[in-house]
Design goal:
Length: 162
């Protein structure tokens, strides 16, 4: 029996909320959000329970979480949706004021550099962002230019209010 082809996605965390909005998460806490979510499955009916996704904290200066998922069942954008759901669900009752969780994903198309475990060619790097204003955050990082430099099938942006 053939094993399904597994995709690999690395997550970083960009906490762009004012002090006191919600508590910032350290690396271990950030990883725990996803390990618990993927161990328990999804709470939303339209998203199937992703109990076949492996999730782990990794030792890398930029990347925090590694996700391995069956590519036959989840597209990178679908995984981005699940990541948004996981963090938004975790944050649901932690703030009186609303904010947004976003995933900004891009496929690595160049050879790997830097510390291991590095993002490999063909894998997805995803910045998980918490912000009050997605538009301001995207303008600050020049998202339109960054996204415009890649084919549409090599990027995704997903946001959800909390």
């Amino acid at each position: 029996m053939n094993q399904p082809q597994m995709g690999r996605m690395l997550l970083s965390h960009n906490f762009a909320l004012p002090e006191g909005a919600v508590r910032s998460l350290n690396r271990e806490e950030f990883a725990e959000v996803f390990t618990q979510f993927f161990a328990q499955g999804s709470s939303q009916e339209e998203l199937s329970a992703p109990n076949n996704v492996d999730c782990a904290l990794i030792d890398n200066p930029h990347w925090i979480v590694e996700l391995r998922y069956p590519m036959s069942e989840y597209s990178p954008a679908a995984m981005g949706e699940l990541v948004v759901e996981a963090l938004a669900s975790y944050r649901q009752n932690q703030s009186a004021e609303g904010f947004y969780v976003m995933t900004l994903g891009g496929m690595k198309t160049t050879p790997p550099t830097g510390a291991l475990p590095a993002l490999q060619t063909g894998e997805w790097g995803v910045d998980v962002v918490e912000t009050r204003s997605p538009a301001e955050f995207l303008a600050e990082i020049n998202w339109d230019k960054l996204a415009g430099a890649k084919p549409k099938e090599q990027i995704f942006k997903i946001e959800r209010s909390v």
